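INTERNAL AUDIT FORM
Audit reference: QA-55
Scope: verify that the stored structure record matches its stored sequence.
Auditor: D.O.
Record contents follow.
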Amino acid sequence: MTAVLGPTNTGKTHLAIERMCAHSSGIIGFPLRLLAREVYDRVVALKGPGQVALVTGEEKIVPPDARWFLCTAESMPDRDVAFMALDEAQLGADLERGHVFTDRLLHRRGRDETMILGSEALKPMIRALVPDAEIIARPRFSTLTYAGARKISRLPKRSAIVAFSAEEVYAVAEMLRRLRGGAAVVMGALSPRTRNAQVEMFQAGEVDYLVATDAIGMGLNMDVAHVAFAGLHKFDGRRRRRLTVAEMAQIAGRAGRHHRDGSFGALAEEGPDSFLPEEVLAIEEHRFPRLDHLYWREGDPDLSSIDALIASLERKPAPGVLRAAPLATDLQVLKRLADEPWVRDRVRRPAMVARLWAACGIPDFRKVGIDPHARFVSRVFGHLSEGLGHVPHQWFADEIARLDNMAGDVETLAGRLSAIRSWAYIAQRADWLADPRHWAERTREIEERLSDGLHASLTQRFVDKRTTALIRRIGADAGALPVTIGPEGEVLVEDHPIGRLEGFRFTVEAGARANDKRLLLAAAEKRLGTERSRRAETLIAAEHDAITLAEDRLVWDGHGVARLIAGPSLGRPVLRLERDLDCLAPLQREQVKARLDAWLTRSLDRQLPALVRLAGLAREAKASPAIRAVAAALEDAGGIAPRQPLRLMIDALSPDERRRLRGMGITIGTLDVFDPRLLKPGAATWRRTLMTLWGQTPDLARPGATILRRDEPGRGVASGYRPLGEQAVRIDLVERIARAAHDAREGRGPFTPDASLATSIGLEAATLDRLMGDLGFRKIRGGENEPARWIWRGRPPARPAPRVTASPGNAFAALADWGRTP
């Protein structure tokens, strides 16, 4: 036996392939299906497909005249061959699979030559277990050096970033997509077809980065110059722990090929995921702690009964360097099934015990945990132990048909791919199905389709070919790219859409997110500045009707350019430009502000003329306190207020002051004081916007409504409608009815009002009665066929104090002056 030991990048696997091909037959056992497939393809190229076999749990290609076998360690056939090799034999110290590698190390031999490949840490174990083995040390062909910690954005090309969970792999790949245009993804759970397609992208230079799990440390050959660790901790199936130095070196050693030097580093400069100085030194000098034990489990267990099988599998090795293997998944499943009475009833012969143990060996490809996996194995064994001992055709067909679906995201497709591996494993068992060859082919076809779908999904999600091409073409000179702006505001760099200029805001499109901004925004910045300046000039020269109000935003060309905010009082709002306009030069920005201020002044004069004048009157030094108080209170109410709270102030007005208010458009009605122009839809919208700025938000009634029902919005004097029982009447119509009633009465004698106006606007009898009562009339009951008559009883008494809402410096000051009036 020859043991070839050394760090990665020593050509150990290549040497084993050469030695095997020099013999008449041979077997090599590998730690991964991916690696077995890779070497199988290489040997087929040398020897032809008719003489080379691939044997893994899920895939078997065994020509009748096969002489050279490439296998996973678990699937190595017990054949008489001239050459036998075991790769990555130091995995005998692995908690889950170590006993398999130890068994192959101890018992598998070639007639002419046996070769054990592994790290230098395995040397003491070889000396202890195979004393007569020749140990050959293979030095690394190139130098491996520590390059320090680097952010993802600063990683060199041809880098591999290693993470230790699918979630971390996807997160890093997404970040590389944003920063560098994309990355290939390699994980042990991928099928060889998907893995090869992803690696081919990396090898062909379509992407410059690769994101992988620690599976790349197991001999997968790729042209990697730098390995970056996204973390230094992983979950090993039992606990989350820090990587050993040997594991770090195994992964870092993927950097560099043959005589080309490589480097390694971390993404974190400090903290638990940064390298310690002693770790760096050990990796660079290839000095690691030697293994002091390997895990062992009986490789040829006693199949006479379930109890004998379990006892033999739990038997401890003789004292020395071998330790009893921890409880592996297959043994856990066996012990659970052994507790089932129906299982013991069926397993009474050694042949059935062997069948049960074979079923327990189905790997948990889906990583669902021991309980769900044990239930799955239990169902499979239930079929294997009854009737003809075959898994039912219909169940198998239904389950794989459910997986034959290419729709879904990366995680969904990866889940289906893991699931089909379980059925492929079952199909490879010659005596588990009535037609195993047919179902092996069917599962292979589905796996290939899922693999192609997953590759396409991974590429679509994690590769941005546009950004990659742009980065390669221009390097750091973003200004070299031609930038155009389309008629709809679309911004294109070299005919690639990178975003949209909406008004003055540039929004990067979803396909050019986050870090595309660094390159693509730099390319677009100069052209965007010119376009924004042109748009600002167009806005400055815009016609009045080109700018509109949408709630509290000023909108031009379909885009918000400013917002209204509360000013000194309700009738004096102020403008604040949107932050999108901060990109303009200061002078141009001031010009835009002046233009919008002018628009606001004109719009207020058009829509709310009385409100603007009330704001001025409330601050007019020469005006009397009474009229200033009325103006201030009416302004704070938005130009519409009930008369009763203001009666004492209104009564203090002189005839000239009343005429002045009427000249401003204010109606001092019997029940309400208001500007009737505010009841128009456009003015009502403006008024509501201004009141909202001050924390008052009256409901808007439906446009043109004269009467509102109880359940309709807008019932209230603040909205311009006076509630009267089941109905609410628009306040200008209330005033018209009041005027008509007063015109019809003669002194304080009874009279019959003309009800035609009330009827024409839809007032119900009960509403009219309520209104007449509020106006100061009392109803007199007449005869049975006589119309109702009314008598004037006088207006209601004034309240002792006014009640208004005031803005600072406005109504409070005016009311204070009014209160001092004798």
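Auditor finding: record pair retrieved intact. The mean pLDDT is 86.
Action required: none
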